[in-house]
Each structure stands twice: as C-alpha cells, then as structure tokens.
# Entry
Amino acid sequence: MNRKQMAATIDHAVLKPEFTEEDLTKHADMCIRNKVYSMCVKPCDILTAKRLLAGSGVKVSCVLSFPHGADSTPVKAFQAEQAIKDGTDEIDMVMNIGRFLGGDDRYVIEDIRAVVEVAHQHGVQVKVIQESGFLTSGQVAKACKLAYSAGADFVKTSTGFGPGKATPGIIDIMIKTVGGKMKIKASGGIRTWQDAQAFLEQGADRLGIGSTEAILNESTSDDHY
# Structure
C-alpha cells in the first residue's frame, strides 16, 4: 500500500473541544495536501469545513451526539437534518451506549434508524460508533447486528474519547458479524503506519485518525486521540 492509497481511506479527525477556526484551517490545508477521504468535524464546524475544503475533492464528515450518544432520538434526527443542510457528506453517530448495555435493543435500533432515514433521503451514509471499549466481544457482535437491522452503512469502533481503542480483535468480530453487509471503520488509537495498514489489510474500509500526517510520513504520533 502506498501513501496515496492509505490517505484515500482516512477520515481525518478534527474533534478536540479546544480546536478553533484557525486549527480547522490548518487541518483543512493538511487534508487537501494529502488528499485524505474526508475531514471529520464537530457539527458546529461543518459550514467552515465545507468552505475550507471547497473544490478540493476532500469530503466533510461529521460526528453526531458525540461522544456519549445520549441525546434523545428526536434530537439526533434533527441534528442529522441540520448537519446535512450545512453540507456534511457522511455522519458518524454514537450509539446510545447506556440503552444498549441496559438491553433495550428496540430503543437502540429505532434511535439509529431515525438518523439513517433522514440521512438516506439525501444520499448521506451513516456510521454507528459503538464505543467498543465499553463492550465485551459478544456485545460488539450484537451492536453490529443492531446497526445492520437499523439500516446503517458502517460500524465503527470508537470515538477516540472513551476507553480502549480499535484493536485487531474487535475488527475481526465486526468482519465476522457484518462483513460483506456493512462497511467497517477502525477508529481510536491508530498512531503508526503499520497499525493503519494492518487494519486495512484485515478488512477495514475506513480509518478514523487524528495524527494523519505523522502516519502518512511513517512516523509515530504521540497524539492521544
């Protein structure tokens, strides 16, 4: 895999709460220079990201109900509508982790489906973040099945702000559970070229990375995302 091929799989994460518009500008320049797939931003930054990336071919993706997934379902649906209106190309929503761990499968499915229905009306893909560091292996598989039942396009490992990170074991479970039916995004704790390449070779379709340039330059990042 070469640098260009790697870059084309990366959603570059610009999600830290302290990031300013100046930070967004710097990150957008990096995304354009390296031709990553998308720049993933907070909902309040979609309009700015869209302007900064205009004409570059780099897409805008955004998080939704981040990082806990705890907004009510109508609020999540509204957030999706607003994000699409502002110009996002993809949505990375956080599953309601507490409802999932409490066994309320119907709530989880309907919560995801509410966002999916809004997004798919506009041709926008939805990734469901499990925050898999909270989950057992069996729960990772179950969460994948619920996301599939709700019509989502991707399952995704982590927000990068919770416990744990993307691991080969978690990606293996995702592939065995929904591989071929859904796409898979490894996100959280990816800090070396070797780790990024290994996830892609294992079968991940997309990578969520905060230290994109360091990884593409094949150096090790000390970023905590």
Observations:
- The chain has a mean pLDDT of 96.
- The longest helix spans residues 105-120.
- The beta strands are 10-14, 38-41, 59-64, 90-94, 125-129, 154-156, 183-187, 206-209.
- The two ends are 24 Å apart (CA to CA).
